[in-house]
Amino acid sequence: MIRIAQLLVFAAGLLLVWKYFDTVIDVVAAFFKVLSPFLVGGAIAFVLNVPMRSIEKLLFGGKKARSIRALQKMARPVSLVLTLLFVAALLALFFGVLVPRLSETVEIIAQSAQEFFPKAEAWIIKTFEDNPQIIEFVNNLELNWEKLASDAGDVLQSGISTVVTSGVNAVVALFSGVVNAFIGLIFACYVLVQKEKLGNQAYRLLHAVFRPRTADNICGVGQLAFNTFSSFVRGQCLEAAILGLLFVITMPIFGLPYPLMVGVIVTFTALIPIFGAFIGCVISALVILMVDPFKALIFVILFLVLQQLEGNLIYPHVVGNSVGLPSIWVLVAVTVGGNLMGVPGMLLFIPLCSVGYALLRSWVNRRNALRTAEVAAQQALTEARGETGEAEAEVPETEGKTE
């Protein structure tokens, strides 16, 4: 009767939601709008927790530091302050150094484009001088190279401006309003300082609401999700930074231009799994092509070499199997997430699918183990019954002989 009543209530709730769907959506949107500062603060806390744990373990994780009570009390506040300073330094580097450098690079590329197109025309004429049809076609083009160079520079500058503007708009949309940003940051700091206490409170609340086994399962799923997301964020960011640094170091050795800009482009695009680094390669190769086509070819070869080095040596040691998702499912997660939510979906769906894959694998293994145990028990019971039947059949034969 209780289950029937629960089903009836559930069905009635679905009907009400279907009937007043627009009203429900408005209520849910208003609810999330009120909670948006705390949701943003939780997201900030989750991201900042990754470097904070590393800093705390590095500075206060030794045996000597653990034995001093005063240092343990200072560990969390000092680690949080150092993490905030580190993030502030990264933002200052991006907006104070890299963005102006990108603007200067765009101007240089626009000037180089004006020299590139006439050189390209002369190279085509010299290369195909034995084919008069191609030479005639090139001469009849009557292209205004200066206008083409100017247009190419404008398109490139517009594209980079669009990328920067999109990033800024995303940040502005994420932190809509100074008050919400301030509340979210304060909430994130409180969560990071009191995370063990909050975790204990959540554990006690779950055990008060659900049965112990259900509460333990929910805690296990939460811990699995946290470990998976943390490992993915830490590994992906570190792997992208190493790949970008490799380009900054190796490009001057081969005399390739714009090493800092290419390193930044590759670092940010490499955050996108699987396809990101190749997107950065295409963008950077087009930029270098305006300066020297031969150097662009050298850059592509260098990219392929560094990509193989990173994929076979660096990535397994930095990221390894922390995500625990086979390559084919990583491709599926990136494709589905990109179609649904764009770049954030690509970053979100890989750890999300990894959690689902781990839970499904655990459930399948448990079910297969139960089925194997059931089959073994059935076989043992059948064998036992067969032996009993043979023993009972032998008794009358013996009694007959005795008579």
Q: Top keywords for this entry?
A:
single chain, mainly alpha, extended
Radius of gyration: 32 Å
Distance between the termini: 64 Å
The main sheet comes to: none
Are there runs of 5+ residues with pLDDT below 50, and where? 398-403
Order of helices and strands: HHHHHHHHHHHHHH
Q: What is the strand content?
A: under 5%
**How does the overall form come out from the CA principal axes?**
extended
Specify the helix fraction band. over 70%
Q: Count the helices. How many?
A: 14
**If you average the pLDDT, what whole number results?**
75
Instruction: Please count the beta strands (DSSP E, at least 2 residues each).
Output: 0
The secondary structure category is: mainly alpha
Question: What's the topology here?
Answer:
Blueprint: H1 2-19, H2 21-60, H3 63-67, H4 69-127, H5 132-139, H6 145-174, H7 178-193, H8 195-209, H9 212-253, H10 259-269, H11 276-289, H12 293-318, H13 327-341, H14 343-402
Helix pairs in contact: 2-4, 2-7, 2-9, 4-6, 8-9, 9-10, 9-12, 9-14, 10-11, 11-12, 13-14
In words, what does this structure look like?
The protein is mainly α and 403 residues long. It has a domain of 70 residues. The chain is built from 14 helices and no strands. The chain is extended and about 95 Å long. The C terminus is likely disordered.
Summarize it.
The protein is built from 14 helices and no strands.
